[in-house]
């Protein structure tokens, strides 16, 4: 297509090449990038225009919330859940220590037992 000058726009990224033909309703193509040192020159000679995708950066506030605050909240919630059910977990661990196996019915029975005050 390049040699026949049928390509109008090309976008080269790290591992992909995107291009469109010169049809009235353009067709879009993509292919894996490959090692061709003369590719850019051949595309330029064929009259192609070059584009590139501008990476939209995430807001610093959103990035901070997603990478720090959200994981802390998730782990705090898990800690609270485990703490609230610590007595039940100890009963299950004691039962497993003594019996070595537990069925689903026995597990549910231990979970549903009322706590003794």
TrEMBL record:
UniProt keywords (A-Z) are: Membrane, Transmembrane, Transmembrane helix
Q: Report TM segments.
A: 61-82
Gene3D superfamilies linked to this entry: 3.30.720.210, Peptidase M41 (1.20.58.760)
Does this UniProt record's set of keywords contain Transmembrane helix? yes
For this protein, the record's InterPro entries field holds: Peptidase_M41-like
Lineage, highest ranks first? Bacteria, Bacillati, Bacillota, Clostridia, Lachnospirales
What protein name applies here? SHOCT domain-containing protein
